[in-house]
Design goal:
Blueprint (H helix, E strand, L loop, with lengths): L5 H16 L6 H8 L6 H4 L3 H19 L10 H18 L1 H13 L12 H15 L9 H17 L8 H19 L17
Helix pairs in contact: 1-2, 1-4, 1-6, 5-8, 5-9, 7-8
């Protein structure tokens, strides 16, 4: 068996501790101790604890992507793309309990000094590029910032997958909800004729 690199040992230790104790409850010293490396070596690979937290989340996403697609390809109609996004994302959050625990922790612990939520990474960049592709083809309203669209998709799917909901508990009900969600997202994101657009809060037409 191939021996783990020091970076891999650090990531494994950080993942274990972040999942168990959250961001605030995990120190770089504890990570170094569990990984069996010198404390200063952590900063050779990672700028700070925030960077390490984000890298652990990216690694979880990459693992899932290797097993099954999360981000669908864009060579399909928008309706089909959104349906796949909803199904893939709900499955990802449901099946990856480490990610689920980290998201629950970051809801509790993120602050102005601990920016541990959604950030600009290679993974989010791929999602933004996919959204931009549909905007260039005129399938997603170009007036909607890609960052807003991505945040909407992430919020809807993660909330449904991670939060208990007795109103939609049976497997058949969950399937119906995901179909309903995909249909409503499609209607919300596709361009509308100018005469149907409503003024936004700033007074411009949206």
């Amino acid at each position: 068996m191939k021996e783990q690199s020091k970076r891999e040992r650090i990531l494994d230790a950080a993942r274990s501790l972040f999942v168990e104790h959250g961001y605030a409850g995990t120190s770089m010293g504890n990570i170094a101790k569990q990984a069996g490396v010198n404390h200063s070596l952590l900063f050779h690979y990672f700028d700070n604890k925030e960077t390490l937290w984000q890298t652990v989340k990216e690694a979880i996403v990459q693992e899932a992507q290797e097993i099954g697609t999360i981000l669908p390809d864009t060579n399909r109609p928008l309706a089909n793309f959104i349906e796949a996004v909803v199904n893939n994302s709900v499955r990802f959050y449901t099946d990856n309990r480490d990610m689920a625990r980290m998201i629950h922790w970051q809801r509790l612990q993120q602050s102005d000094t601990a920016r541990i939520g959604v950030s600009r990474t290679a993974a989010t960049g791929e999602w933004l590029n996919a959204i931009a592709d549909y905007q260039k083809r005129g399938e997603i309203d170009p007036a909607c910032p890609a960052e807003f669209v991505l945040t909407l998709l992430l919020s809807v799917t993660s909330s449904f997958a991670l939060d208990q909901n007795e109103l939609i508990a049976l497997p058949a009900e969950r399937e119906q909800w995901m179909k309903f969600c995909a249909e409503r997202l499609y209607l919300a994101l596709t361009p509308r004729p100018a005469k149907e657009r409503q003024p936004t809060a700033s007074g411009t037409r949206g």
